[in-house]
Design brief:
By secondary structure, the chain is of the alpha+beta class. It has two domains: about 80 residues, Phosphorylase Kinase, domain 1; about 200 residues, Transferase(Phosphotransferase), domain 1. The protein contains nine helices and nine strands. The chain is globular and about 60 Å long. The N and C termini lie far apart (about 55 Å).
Length: about 325
């Protein structure tokens, strides 16, 4: 067993927690996470915590600490995020070759995105996150751009022969055409300010309680256009997405101006995510969690569906962008 988490046993997790000075009572529960390993851990005479063990070699320490600083900065301004706990002045720890952080456990449910008030509420808090994110840039985290999320992962997939032979040339051509469409969208959007983002603001990373939302897992936080944290809140047919966008922006613009030219980027960002996602799974295939979670990944049917998706995206990127009603 040579995958990155081969030696992360339950005993190692509990020993790591105790190395910080916290006392685990022996109970733990693996939570749903693939990029990192995340565990709920019960403590003696203290609230339950969540421990995140970072994937080895993914981020340098400086980039992880930037994420911690950013979420701590947001929490200090009473924005509902979940920053790591500081123990003896530290938020990043190491044990048995694994770097990890400890978080207070925060429960919640998936937001009800059919409710306009919920969308406006989410938009308001994302606007507050972005208002802080715009104050200064990251120094150690990358930007969301065409090269890193499209060109490089596409080349990697082709170089490592992940495409079924009978579909390789088709996917190669369609993905190249899709990236041409992405470039046109970015040209139409023009220059935009890159700000610190959540980066992966899908509904799995937003938990709702009776007091409203809180945002978790800033692990993919990076520099990029504001609309990256908005478009994943939209779903359904075009009229539904137009209504949702209007609700989100109604809250967002209470705290942060939004340049409507960035709406040209929505389908381009979706296209980049599709290409990047396939490369992400392929790059993690030596981790047993990935073949177990994505057993259909190396089948021809998977790539046929991706070709169809990219063709649909090519058409969508040439349509008029969404404009709020």
């Amino acid at each position: 067993m040579t995958h990155p988490y081969a030696s992360l046993t339950p005993d190692t997790v509990l020993d790591a927690i105790e190395s910080t000075g916290l006392r685990a009572d022996g109970r733990m529960l693996a939570l749903n996470s693939y990029e990192n390993r995340v565990y709920q851990v019960w403590l003696d005479e203290a609230p339950t915590v969540v421990a995140k063990f970072y994937r080895p070699e993914r981020w340098p320490d400086a980039a992880i600490l930037e994420e911690h600083i950013y979420t701590t900065e947001l929490a200090a301004r009473e924005i509902p995020v979940v920053p790591p706990m500081a123990v003896a002045g530290r938020t990043l720890f190491e044990h048995a070759g694994f770097r990890f952080a400890v978080y207070p456990r925060q429960g919640g449910r998936v937001p009800e995105l059919s409710d306009p008030a919920t969308l406006e509420w989410l938009g308001r808090f994302i606007g507050r996150i972005h208002a802080v994110g715009a104050l200064q840039p990251f120094a150690h985290r990358p930007s969301l751009d065409i090269e890193g999320f499209g060109v490089e992962p596409r080349a990697w997939l082709l170089e490592h022969d992940w495409l079924p032979p009978e579909l390789r040339s088709v996917w190669e051509g369609v993905s190249a055409q899709a990236l041409d469409g992405v470039r046109r969208c970015f040209e139409r959007a023009g220059d935009y300010p890159a700000i610190r983002l959540h980066g992966d603001c899908h509904m799995g990373n937003v938990l709702w309680t009776d007091d409203g939302p809180h945002f978790v897992d800033f692990d993919d936080s990076r520099m990029g256009p504001a609309v990256q944290d908005l478009w994943m809140l939209l779903s359904g047919d075009r009229p539904a997405r137009v209504r949702q966008l209007a609700d989100v922006l109604a809250g967002y613009e209470d705290f942060m101006d939004f340049d409507p030219r960035q709406l040209h980027l929505i389908e381009a960002l979706r296209t980049l995510r599709l290409i990047h996602y396939s490369a992400w799974i392929a790059r993690r295939w030596d981790d047993p969690a990935f073949p177990a979670a994505f057993p259909w990944f190396d089948s021809p049917r998977y790539w046929e569906e991706r070709i169809l998706e990219l063709r649909e995206q090519i058409a969508l990127m040439d349509e008029e962008p969404l404009w709020p009603a």
